[in-house]
Write a structure and sequence with these properties.
With about 400 residues, this protein is α+β, with helices and mostly antiparallel strands. It has 2 domains: about 260 residues, L-amino peptidase D-ALA esterase/amidase (4-Layer Sandwich), CATH 3.60.70; about 110 residues, ArgJ beta chain, C-terminal domain (Ubiquitin-like (UB roll), Roll). About 30% of the residues lie in helices and about 25% in strands. The chain has 11 helices and 15 strands. A 6-stranded mixed beta sheet has the order 13-12-11-14-10-15. Strands 3-9-8-7-6 form a 5-stranded mixed beta sheet, with helices on both faces. Helix 1 packs across helix 2, helix 2 packs parallel to helix 3 and helix 5 crosses helix 6.
């Protein structure tokens, strides 16, 4: 079950990136569950990782290796998160890097590991390591679609998007990204896993800033169930293989167009995660305007997005607007003047100056709530700041998926 048709279109190869996909049988046989990205020597990588204190062993190793050396290989496994696995988990994550590096004749620190799947179980290292040669033998520049499928867990469809733009000087660069995520989604840095590549030349000092800005406007504005994963990671690699001039400062004429294109790709992936949220039947934008700060706007937006009463009303297509009003009131804003608040469902005003809008009708509200895609817009009357998040409803199917996840 997912909302909308999903992302369509060709995933463009990125010069300097090859991808290999293999079946290691990590959780079950017969599906691609091992993905290797091989990056050119000229590549530079940046990453953002989960803020969950119980972050997985591969997160610890990936962060350390990213600081030590320019990555040449990304290793991704599904079916097992290698989280909550203590010292053995760290040993297994490091051993995965060591073996892949050995096969590729590279230093161990040049490999970044990523895992996703069940928490609290040890990696089946015999099967994982046995699958590495096949993944390397499968390396191809046009394997993005296979990789998008290979990193899935409870996702119902792959998530990938490409974009091309012309930079200053007339040269074209490409951006391609894939992501996985469906549940345990309320990232404080990125989504569960996302890998984005470009052939643009970008100064190393700028790469991290570009990634964090794009992440903040995309993956850091989505939530399915308010749970932050132990394994979240979002990686950006710039191979520098294009003919375009290097983007070497925020004042470069290509900087802003590139940032906007990168954000467009990452926001598209983030939206697709919400649309494919576990059991989702609705895609909902929650926009908060006239806030006194970004923190205020997000506090209100996330309180609405995380309210089980609002989310179940969305599932039922029930225009129970009192639940939205109550969520705004308990969002923690100091000295909130409720008489200044207006609330809209799409173009239907449901609350005016803190009470039911005079011309609101249940029929009009119900018509909006029956849509697969809708917006909830809240005007606070406190300032000029606006922000938004994207979320889903909470359906019977979400409960079934997570009740049966390990079985």
């Amino acid at each position: 079950m997912a909302v909308g048709p999903g992302l369509t279109g060709q995933l463009l190869p990125i010069d300097g990136v090859e991808i290999g996909v293999a079946q290691a049988g990590i959780k079950r046989p017969g599906r691609n569950d091992l993905v290797v990205f091989k990056l050119s020597e000229s590549s530079r990588s940046a990453g953002v990782f989960t803020t969950n204190a119980f972050c997985a062993a591969p997160v610890h190793v990936a962060k350390a290796h990213l600081q030590a050396q320019a990555p040449r290989l990304w290793l991704v496994n599904t079916g097992n998160a290698n989280a909550g696995t203590g010292a053995r988990g760290m040993t297994d994550a490091q051993a995965s890097c060591t073996e892949l590096a050995h096969l590729a004749s590279l230093p161990s620190e040049s490999v970044l590991p990523f895992s996703t799947g069940v928490i609290g179980e040890y990696l089946p290292m015999d099967r994982l390591l046995a699958g590495l040669p096949a993944a390397l033998e499968n390396l191809q520049s046009d394997n993005w679609q296979a990789a998008a499928s290979g990193i899935m867990t409870t996702d119902t469809r792959p998530k990938g998007l490409s974009h091309q733009l012309e930079l200053a000087g007339g040269h074209t660069v490409s951006i391609t990204g894939i992501a996985k995520g469906s549940g345990m989604i309320k990232p404080n840095m990125a989504t569960m896993l996302s890998f984005v590549a470009t052939d643009a030349k970008i100064a190393p000092a700028l790469l991290d800033s570009l990634l964090r800005q794009a992440t903040e406007a995309s993956f850091n504005r989505i939530t399915v169930d308010s749970d932050t994963s132990t394994n979240d990671a979002c990686m950006l690699v710039a191979t520098g293989e294009s003919q375009a001039d290097e983007i070497d400062s925020a004042l470069h004429p290509s900087y802003q167009p590139f940032l906007e294109a990168l954000t467009r790709v990452m926001r598209g992936l983030a939206h697709e995660i919400v649309r494919d949220g576990e059991g989702a039947t609705k895609f909902v934008e929650i926009a908060v305007e006239q806030a006194g700060s970004t923190e205020e706007a997000l506090a209100v937006a996330y309180t609405i997005a995380h309210s089980p009463l609002v989310k179940t009303a969305l599932t039922a297509s029930d225009a129970n607007w009192g639940r939205i009003l109550a969520a705004v009131g308990r969002s923690g804003l100091k000295e909130l003047d409720v008489s200044q608040i207006d609330i809209w469902l799409d173009e239907v005003q449901i609350v005016a100056q803190g009470e039911r809008a005079a011309d609101y009708t249940e029929a009009a509200g119900s018509q909006v709530m029956q849509q697969e895609e809708l917006s909830i817009r809240v005007l606070l009357g406190r300032g000029e700041v606006a922000d938004r998040v994207w979320t889903t409803d909470l359906s019977y199917e979400y409960i079934r998926i997570n009740a049966e996840y390990r079985t």
